[in-house]
Structure formats: C-alpha cells, structure tokens
Amino acid sequence: MQEVAVLGIGQVPVGEHWDKRLVELAGEAIFAALEDAEVNKVEALYVGNMMAGQLDKQTHLGALISDWIGFRGIEAMTVEAACGSGALALRTALIAVSSGLVSSALAVGVEKMTDTSPQETTAALATAASADWEGVHGITFVGLNALIMRRYMHEYGWKHEDFAPFSINAHANGANNPNARFQSPISEEVYRKAVMVADPINLMDASPIGDGAAAAIVVPLDLVKGLAHKPIVRIAGSAVATDSLAVHDRHDPLWLSAAEKSAREVYRQANLGPDEVDIFEIHDAFSIMAALSLEACGFTDRGQGPRLALEGEITPTGRIPIATMGGLKARGHPVGATGMYQVVEAVQQLRGEAGKAQIDGVKVALTQNIGGSGATVISHILTAAGI
Ligand code: COA
Fold first, then answer.
1. What pLDDT was estimated at residue 90?
2. What strands lie across the sheet with 279-281, from one edge to the other?
3. Which residue, by CA, sits nearest to atom 38 of ligand 1?
4. Is this structure's pTM higher than 0.85?
5. Rounded to whole angstroms, how far apart are CA atoms 283 and 276?
C-alpha cells in the first residue's frame, strides 16, 4: 500500500442554492479542487451523496458528474452511508490510490436539501434510521437525538444549558469562515431562548438544512513530494466502523461504539493518540453528538463531554479545538457533503490557509463523519508533512 496525500481542495459556500443544480454544485467544488491542485485530469471520481435519489429524483451520480465536468469515460461511482457519505468518498479514493489501481482520484461530497419542503427533506433524512423499528413510528433524526440527549442528561446529571458551549463555539468559529451557512456569533441567552424543536433539542442544538459540495484530489505521497506547490498534507489514517442502525439494539445507547472503533484504528495507523491531535473536525449534527464523539474518541471520560466544553477546552485556544470552521452547527450540514467539508477544512488548517479561523501550529487533524445516529462512522487523520 502506498502513502497518500491531498493535492487539491475545493468547496462552495453552504447555503440555499436554489439557482444551482446538483451537478453544478459538485462541478464548482471539483473545478476549485482541480485549480488548487494545478491539474486538469484525474483517473477516477468518487461521489458521496445521500438523498439525490429521493429529493432530486436522480441517481447514478458518478457517470452524471464525471460527464458534466468534462471527464466522460473515467471510472466513477457513488458511495453512500447516510450523513457519512462524504468521508466515505474520501475513503474510497484513498483505497483506490493507495492500492496502486488508480493513480489519482477525486472525492466529492454533494447534497441539495432545500429545493424540497422541510417535510420532504426530513422524511428523506429519516430513511437512514431503521425503517422497521424507528422510521415506522414516524420519528425524525431530531427526535432520535432528543431521546439520546434526554437519557444522557438523566444518566449524568447535566442540564440543558450545560450544552450551550458547543453551539456558542461553533457559531463563533463559523463567523470566521466565509463558506459557513451562519456567520454570526451567538450568546448564551440566544442559546437558552431558542425555539424548542424536539425537547430537549432546541434550534441551537441542531445543525441546519442546507445545500453544498466539497471536493479533494488524492494522489500518491511520493508524487506530491516531487511537485509540491503547497504544503503537503498526508492522510495518515482512515477507518470505517459500523453499529446497529436502531438505537435500541445497542448495548449502550449512550456510547458511540463505531466512533470509538474507527478512532482507535486511525490512531493506530497514524501511531499517535488523542493527546497529539491539534484540531478535531467533529460531527456536531446535534450538541449531544458532539459530547458523545469527544468521549468515544478519547478526549474525555464517559459522560464528561459537556464538562470539556464548559471548561473552554473545545475553543480555538483550548486543549482540543473542535468545529474550527463552524462545524455542522454553523458551517452547515448538507449531509452527503459534510464529511468532505470536514476534510477540506482540516487541509486548510494544516496548510495555514484557514484565514481568520486559522489555529496556530496545526500539525495533526482528526475528522469524524457519522452516518445516522452512529451506525456508520468514518474517521481520518490528516497530518502536515513530516508528521
Ligand atoms: N440553527 C440556527 N438557525 C437555524 C437553524 C439551525 N439549525 N435552522 C434554521 N435556522 C434559522 C433560519 O436561518 C431562519 O432564520 P431567519 O428567520 O432569520 O431567516 C429560521 O431559523 C427559520 O428557518 P427554517 O428553515 O424555517 O427552520 P425550520 O424550522 O424549517 O428548521 C430545524 C429548523 C432545526 C427543524 C431544521 O434545521 C432541521 O431539521 N435540522 C436538523 C437536520 C437534520 O436532521 N440533519 C441530519 C442530522 S443526522
């Protein structure tokens, strides 16, 4: 297996892109990545997407997008793992390139969620839960996460306001990211007074619906070493793990075992541990997910995610800065694109190209993309050259 590096990145701002079709969004992110990489062709394209079949009535995105971008004929396919589809595209590109079967690959995550009514979009999202045991009761992802959060508060004694720092940090960081869906900081009062969506999850606990696309080009590390025009970013670890779709089937519904497994595996591959991670692009689809991910990835003890946040350790100057460009909460969560946004942002931070959101001295970045309420979890560790 050969080592793999990220040669180029591209993204479109997350928003309500009613004037752009899915292929146009994907194309914009891809052309930006090609320009950034200073290349004009790749051998393969892997597309991460969750809902185009339901919301756009369009499947077969690999061939569609490769044709749209002028690369008709190349290897191309779609990969899907609900909200984890984006990072799965990177993982697929990495497997292809590291095996030597493909010499260069594009991974793009794309999703369009705002052309349909919120009811249609919410129903499509819910298909990633267990249809037999969860969807059949009409529960949504906000509802499922509300059940998990309520149980967590009961077990560990946290109050709703203890989760405020997750949202405040994400919105403060999103204010420094021109590609974020929301670019205004929020106060604790705004958090407390936000409208309730599914008790105890209020508007400020939930990531928004939005459209977006983000892309990266991966090539063998040896190739980049020769022609590096930008700081080299290596993919030092990549792992996928799974759990039951239905929350009630889990041994402990308050423990993201797939997040723990995939994090452990990327730490092993990169030969480092949580203490050496400089930033964590976390899957904060809901504030409870941020708390559970921090615990599963070894940044704090079980039940103590909110304490880490309350002590300021998740902010840009804390021990483990998370959601450095706004996270899912403020940058936005165009589901099948999200994992690629996380990777693109990690590369920006590692290259020192994160603008006002830049964190000093980032050498090791962890990204973690979660499908469903924890059923598929994809983790990556990206490092600056030499690490
Ligand atoms: N955080 C902060 N503000 C939000 C927001 C969010 N998550 N969602 C919407 N808003 C804002 C909008 O910008 C809008 O502001 P404006 O009035 O100043 O323009 C206002 O709130 C109303 O927006 P609207 O789109 O009508 O909200 P909504 O009530 O239809 O949707 C949620 C709100 C929380 C229900 C929706 O964002 C949602 O379903 N989120 C979860 C998505 C999800 O489940 N993803 C998958 C996770 S696994």
1. 98
2. 75-79, 44-48, 105-111, 212-220, 4-11, 233-242, 376-384, 364-371, 279-281
3. 208
4. yes
5. 19
